[in-house]
Design a protein that fits this description.
With 534 residues, the chain is an alpha+beta fold. It contains twelve helices and 27 strands. Strands 1, 2, 11, 12, 13, 14 and 27 form a seven-stranded mixed β-sheet that branches. Pfam families: GMC_oxred_C, GMC_oxred_N.
Length: 534
């Protein structure tokens, strides 16, 4: 079989959020060649650009890796889908388009854990650089970056009621959760532009495809990183069934995400020696924490049946056609906004040192029927509550040395009793919101939730059966200054050279919030670190 060989100074593996930013920024330097490879393939019809189309892309193998977890003993052996984007743009092309940066304290905590250069004062300029935001106060926001962050063009009255109930229940109102303060309740901001999803690909790569020093290749399945001794030299891959050899003159940078980056490291000989040997993989660098420290936001999706119409009413055929036409004409429509209308960051109890819970409000409810997600003709809204800084840790494990075989995901989502206690308080807050006017006045029932009078044991049993991941996996290539960290604060992989990881797998601690904005920031930071070192 003939092997095609290509070369570039920098080879970026994975065209997700961080990878798109990194490749774009590196290619701003003339004379530096950048190759961005992606396993997914480019779209022809542009389905992902319609915000409401995530109902059709999540779980669809054309757009989604379609991972399934192993049975979770902390949740009665539950097995579930773990969607991850398999298309240029990565998960930013199929996610809920929620843009939230996390709290300043999150990054200061990273710094205190030995990650110098990652404190809030260091990363705030990066967040500002990457965005153009609809923001009430631009003192901490950006107005010239590629990523468009838009206020909601279409708002449902139920969402306004939810904000009012949050304030009445004691959650402070906040004009901008990405502004000076992270705590409070506010309207969501989304990664959209003129009613279209604005993925990382759309923001950072599509406008720059004509750059002569930026090359993108889709449909590339990386088999392993190649090494000369302990120096990363490139990739062994396949494309359309043909062998592909990629040579990196300067560095290989993994931006394949919290599932695929650790898998590629292990397939390439960077991991725990005994685990690698079990699959016949020779060790290049013994790094036992690769694939460990899997963090997720454990939470609840609680559906409330209301006495007033919700977005579910817009799913009836004639109404849906009307709203689609409005969206197609550039008018405000539920087809053109993110999943969540409202976000809140709150303290589950007065003694909490920082907001330990997050709320989302979806002004609709959905159900699975015959494996497909549908919007039933009921007046449903969904209250989501999750733990911000989970203490529970899962892990990833190789199934085989075959790069096409999905890695085994062991979530252990409620392994730590403190997470259970925090989520119990979160359930209490859901009940509080459902009984506080004006939102509470419209709630007929919380579906599937035991009555408060049933007591603590009934609530714990409910959590063990109903808690779900919020699709924010992180931490599987932990960054730190200690000897066991997978990557150093400059994102170089310990034990080898010319290899970095730059995606949310590097999290040393989870953040309070959805992860897309932080992934973009990591791409900015990585570009800065790589450029400084060149």
């Amino acid at each position: 079989m003939t092997t095609e060989t290509i070369e570039a100074d920098y080879v970026v593996v994975g065209a997700g959020s961080a990878g798109c930013v990194l490749a774009s920024r590196l290619s701003e330097t003339p004379g530096v060649s950048v190759l961005l490879v992606e396993a997914g393939t480019r779209e022809r019809i542009g389905l992902t650009r319609m915000p409401a189309a995530l109902m059709r892309t999540i779980g669809n193998p054309r757009y989604d890796w379609g991972y399934r977890s192993e049975p979770d003993p902390t949740r009665n052996g539950l097995v579930e889908d773990w969607p991850r984007g398999k298309v240029p743009g990565g998960s930013s092309a199929i996610n809920g388009m929620i843009f939230i940066r996390g709290a300043a304290a999150d990054y200061d905590a990273w710094e205190s854990l030995g990650c110098a250069g990652w404190g809030w004062r260091d990363v705030l300029p990066l967040f500002r650089r990457m965005e153009t935001a609809d923001a009430p106060d631009n003192a901490t926001r950006g107005g010239m970056g590629p990523q468009r962050v838009s206020a909601l063009a279409w708002r449902h009255p139920v969402a306004s009621d939810f904000i009012a109930s949050g304030v009445a229940a004691g959650i402070p109102a906040n004009d901008d959760l990405n502004g000076a303060s992270h705590e409070g309740i506010a309207w969501n901001q989304g990664s959209t532009r003129n009613g279209l999803r604005h993925s990382a690909w759309d923001a950072f790569i599509r406008p720059n495809l004509a750059r002569p020093n930026l090359r993108t290749m889709d449909g590339v399945l990386v088999q392993r990183i190649t090494f000369e001794g302990r120096r990363a030299s490139g990739l062994a891959a396949t494309r359309n069934g043909a062998a592909l050899a990629v040579r990196a003159r300067r560095e290989v940078i993994l931006t394949a995400g919290a599932i695929n980056s650790p898998q590629l490291l292990m397939l390439s000989g960077v991991g725990e020696t005994s685990e690698l040997a079990a699959h016949g993989i020779a060790t290049v660098a013994d790094s036992p924490e690769v694939g460990r420290n899997l963090m997720e936001h454990p939470g609840l999706y609680v559906q409330a049946e209301l006495t007033v119409p919700t977005v579910n009413a817009e799913a009836a055929p004639l109404r849906a056609a009307w709203q689609f036409l409005r969206w197609a004409a550039g008018r405000p429509s539920p087809f053109g906004v993110p999943t969540a209308q409202v976000l809140a960051f709150l303290r589950s109890h007065p003694e909490a040192a920082e907001p330990d819970l997050q709320f989302h409000l979806f002004p609709y409810g959905s159900v699975l029927k015959d494996g497909k997600r549908i919007i039933p003709r009921r007046n449903l809204a969904t209250i989501l509550v999750n733990v911000n800084h989970p203490r529970s840790r899962g892990r990833l494990a190789l199934r085989s040395a075959d790069p096409a075989a999905p890695i085994a995901i062991h979530p252990r989502l409620l392994d730590d009793d403190q997470d259970v206690e925090t989520l119990l308080r979160g359930l209490g807050w859901v009940r509080r919101m459902a009984t506080t006017a004006p939102f509470g006045d419209k709630v007929k029932a919380l579906i599937g939730v035991p009555p408060a009078a049933a007591g603590r044991e009934a609530d714990i049993a409910f959590l063990r059966s109903a808690a779900r991941p919020f699709y924010h996996p992180a931490g599987t290539c932990r960054m730190g200054a200690d000897a066991r960290a997978v990557v150093a604060p400059d994102l170089r992989v310990n034990g080898v050279s010319a290899l970095r990881v730059a995606d949310i797998s590097i999290f040393p601690r989870h953040i309070a919030g959805n992860t897309n904005a932080t992934a973009l920031m990591i791409g900015e930071k990585a570009a800065e670190l790589v450029t400084q070192a060149s």
